[in-house]
Amino acid sequence: MSHIVSITILLFLLITFLQSGIDKITDWKGNLSWLTGHFSATFLGKMVPLLLGTILIIEIITAIFCVMGIYHLIADNHTGFAVGAMFSACITLLMLLFGQRVAKDYQGALTITCYFIVAVFGLYVISS
User: Fold this and answer.
1) CB 56 within 8 A of CB 21
2) Domain residue limits at 70
3) What's the whole-model pTM score?
4) What is the DSSP letter of 27?
5) Residues of the chain with pLDDT under 50
């Protein structure tokens, strides 16, 4: 298999974003409550419901791109969806990182940085 590294990274990102999206759907009130408190002292405090919905949509889109990327790498060696998935993951993680930095949650930002490194590496591998 010529794309085994890319497929493995896409599986990692798929699990990450699909689980996160499902969690937001199944526990919307819990997530909203926690995030409202998390951002209460920031300029994002009043926008939490809109931002949570936006992140949910982007995470689900990223997960769909991951599935399509895996399928097309295996079925026809086409990298377009895989590149889109990796790039979408990077953008999503940058949005999450921005929020954590604004909230001054530096440990949360560090965790997101670990995911970001994997996504950027995946983008590098699939683009090379």
Assistant:
1) yes
2) 4-127
3) 0.94
4) T
5) none
